[in-house]
Design brief:
It is built from eight helices and eleven strands. It has about 260 residues and is an alpha/beta fold. The strands form two sheets. A six-stranded parallel β-sheet has the order 8-7-6-10-9-11, with helices on both faces. Strands 1-3-4-5-2 form a five-stranded mixed β-sheet.
Length: about 260
């Protein structure tokens, strides 16, 4: 059954779909009056519905019965992702939402390679939101996770207050082991073993993934000083646009939250 986002979902009256959803229903899927669909409100409620009218750019539907959407993960994982170039950020958001991420927190870091002009242009959040909706529709969720405002890395460190904060770093990088900065000369940072997390099951967690250029050593120092745990993916260095989804999947497996 085709699913559509209907933030105004109600059971006592007919509702109009948002313009993007109406276009998808009428012009892409070519559905007609009387066709059966599913709608969800983005807050966890889903319903079977019937198309009541298709008139120009407007589509009206009526909910007919409650449906059970895909269950949300028991552990709310926020993916904090350094901004990536071109459409890589879209893919990161798509996959994180598909895996059940509770929120996406984009940020800029010392080695972010996204031009400042691209950050200042409008439309990025709108495109990301459309990506979220598309992924939610595909994977069966009825919750639309938020994409938070882009922040500098240091602001992320001060704003994250989750029970567990995990920073994934490159396995063979000096950044992960011997960080020599203004505050950490002589300090030796070791990465935690993923197996130690098996008995540390949080209610909420934040994962930090760096940019294409990797973490600046000073950022690792600041993260450790802020109480974050350093982790690696083993011996292989992963692409920045793949690491987030892999981290979520691995943690969900470890915490038995698939």
């Amino acid at each position: 059954m085709h699913r559509f986002y209907a933030p105004g979902l109600a059971f006592d009256r007919a509702i109009e779909l948002p313009l993007d959803e109406a276009h998808h229903l009428a012009r892409v899927m070519r559905l007609k009056k009387g066709d059966e669909i599913a709608v969800f409100d983005g807050r966890g409620t889903e319903a079977a519905a019937r198309v009541e009218a298709v008139a120009g750019r407007r589509v009206t539907v009526r909910a007919t019965a409650v449906r059970t959407p895909a269950a949300e993960p028991a552990i709310a994982i926020t993916l904090a992702q350094a901004l990536l170039k071109s459409d890589k950020m879209d893919r990161v958001i798509r996959d994180a939402v598909m895996l059940g991420a509770a929120a996406i927190r984009p940020f800029t870091s010392a080695r972010t390679e996204v031009p400042r002009a691209a950050l200042e242009r409008g439309g990025r959040h709108e495109r990301w939101h459309r990506t979220v909706i598309s992924s939610v529709k595909q994977c069966g969720r009825a919750v639309v996770p938020p994409i938070l405002a882009v922040q500098p890395f240091r602001e992320v460190l001060t704003s994250v207050r989750d029970e567990l904060c995990l920073m994934f770093v490159e396995p063979a990088s000096e950044t992960a082991r011997h960080s020599a900065t203004r505050t950490s000369v002589g300090r030796n940072f070791s990465c935690a073993d993923l197996q130690t997390l098996e008995t540390r099951v949080p209610a909420k967690a934040t994962i930090l993934i760096g940019p294409e250029g990797g973490w600046d050593p000073e950022e690792v120092t600041d993260a450790v000083d802020g109480g974050m745990m350093l982790l690696t993916f083993g011996r292989r260095t992963l692409r920045a646009d793949a690491a987030g989804a892999i981290a979520i999947a691995v943690l969900q497996y470890i915490w038995k939250d698939l």
